[in-house]
Design a protein that fits this description.
Layout lengths: L5 H17 L13 H11 L1 E2 L5 E2 L1 E8 L2 E6 L6 E3 L1 E8 L3 E11 L2 E4 L3 E5 L3 H20 L3 E2 L4
Parallel strand pairs: 4-10
Antiparallel strand pairs: 1-2, 3-6, 4-5, 6-7, 7-8, 7-9
């Protein structure tokens, strides 16, 4: 695979985010909500299985919760939990992929087609620039508001 600049990888992630905005969620996904930290932990702990059966381990992931009807405030009203996330993840070999994750249960999820965004050889560089990109995407999702806690 050809190496591309980090800027190009995150430009592709921005395009992915716009695509996700137009995407409709699958008809059958759960009413379970996750925090962004729980999403990241699940991906790093369990890895990802692609639709064709191949798998990869996640070294670093950014889970950007989708706003509007896809989120609700937690029981304490202090933070948001989400039913779907835009995910940008780097595997240990430097491959960066993006997809939409739909929460289906406490420890289960399914996702949209995974898109290859490029290769970022440095995990530190991915973490640094990825955090900036995730913050920008999260800010846009935050502006969509969030549903009140329904318990």
């Amino acid at each position: 695979m050809r190496r591309v600049s980090l800027a190009a990888v995150f430009a592709a992630a921005a395009v992915l985010a716009m695509t996700v905005a137009a995407e409709t969620a699958p008809a059958a996904y759960g009413n379970q909500y996750w925090s962004p930290g729980y999403c990241k932990m699940m991906l790093q702990r369990h890895g990802v299985e692609l639709g064709d059966g191949r798998t990869f381990n996640v070294q670093r992931a950014f889970c950007i919760g989708r706003g509007g009807r896809e989120c609700e405030w937690d029981a304490d009203g202090r933070s948001r939990d989400y039913r779907s996330f835009l995910v940008i993840a780097r595997s240990y070999d430097g491959i960066v992929r993006g997809w939409t994750l739909y929460v289906t249960g406490r420890e289960s999820w399914n996702g949209s087609t995974t898109r290859l965004l490029g290769r970022v050889p440095s995990a530190y560089r991915f973490a640094d620039v990825g955090q900036q990109m995730a913050n920008e995407l999260a800010r846009a999702e935050h502006e969509k508001g969030c549903m009140p806690y329904r318990g």
